[in-house]
Amino acid sequence: MAPEEKSTAQTSQRAELLEGTRISDDIKREVATEIEELWRKPEQRPCLAAVRVGDDPASEVYVKNKIRACEEVGIRSEHHSLPCSTTASELRELIGLLNSRDEIDGILVQMPLPEGIDEAAIIETLDPEKDVDGFHPVNVGRLALGRPTFVPCTPAGIIELLTRNEISIRGAKTCVVGRSQIVGRPMAQLLTQHDATVTVCHSRTQDLKSVTRQADLLVVAIGRPGLIRRDYIKSGATVIDVGMNKISEESIARDLFGDDAARRMETIKRRGYTLVGDVHPAEADTVAGRRTPVPGGVGLLTVAMLMRNTVKAARLRRG
Ligand code: GUN
After folding, report:
1. 127 pLDDT exceeds 70?
2. 157 and 280 assigned to the same domain
3. 86 near 53, Cβ under 8 Å?
4. How many Å lie between the centroid of ligand 1 and the Cα of residue 231?
């Protein structure tokens, strides 16, 4: 992330920014300590295999960040970058090989996969014991039963962000916007397991704002830039923004970022785009009590939780 893209507190804003930096650093430090204590020799340390197919630039950045985090905490890693032309059977073959290699503890297949490859079918070929993303049906089922082994990293990171900031979940009126396998569904399950009252909304929900504005805790993961505006948010609510959308039009940046717009337009000029979540930051900040920024919010926690899941996989596999 370019430093100039980091959200900064504005004097006019009310919402407190819940940045992911400190907590993700804390989690990575805890993971690094655990690795040092459990595996003294570098060659014994947990090993993560990351698989990426195609040339999606965002996926490339995400995988790079995950590999860098491995280096930071002392996890060994290998990166398999496959061309767009890769067939489902070639990908299955690679995953079969990674499943069978004893020194590999965790396998991560970066989503989305190119069109034409059935993601669900690929996920089913993963060894559930190496499924550090928690996407395999066995791990999805365990979470649904309230007996999770690997919890998907983004929702798990959001729970850490809330609990470590002492934001109460028990009994809270919460709303999850989005029902993806990666975020929305597991998020709703985790919140329920933490005794929240949960409403799930999605692209077909009628009069979305009448539902979202009742929530004390609003988690948004629907992939629509700036969808959640002032009138969607209850006064004082905690708003967790999982969206990660690219925008390149300066007029949109001006509308979305308020006091921060000049900096964002600089980024657009230099890079061709800037990142915005699913929440309209300038409007949300006038009503919400707390808000996670994009970038610099939950994305950092996703990576930290992947490190934690990889160490858990190594511990479980090696007894
Ligand atoms: N694509 C978006 N989020 C994720 C994630 O947490 N894991 C993987 N494998 N792919 C993703």
Report:
1. yes
2. yes
3. yes
4. 30
pLDDT at 12: 54
pLDDT at 88 over 90: yes
Instruction: Give yes or no: residues 165 and 289 share one domain.
Output: yes
Does residue 129 contact residue 150 with C-beta atoms inside 8 Å?
A: no
**Nearest by Cα to 193 from 208, 179, 212, 174:** 174
**What is the 255 CA–ligand 1 centroid distance (Å)?**
29
State the chain's mean pLDDT as an integer: 95
247 located within any domain: yes
Quick one: which of 303, 244, 275, 221 has its CA closest to 50? 303
Task: Please state the domain count of the chain.
Answer: 2
Asked whether residue 37 is domain-assigned, the answer is no
Q: What is the pLDDT of residue 286?
A: 97
The yes-or-no answer on residue 285 being catalytic is no
Q: How far does CA 16 lie from the centroid of its chain?
A: 20
Span from the CA of 59 to the centroid of ligand 1 (angstroms)? 9
**Pocket around ligand 1 at a 6 A CB cut-off:** 108-111, 133, 153-154, 182, 302
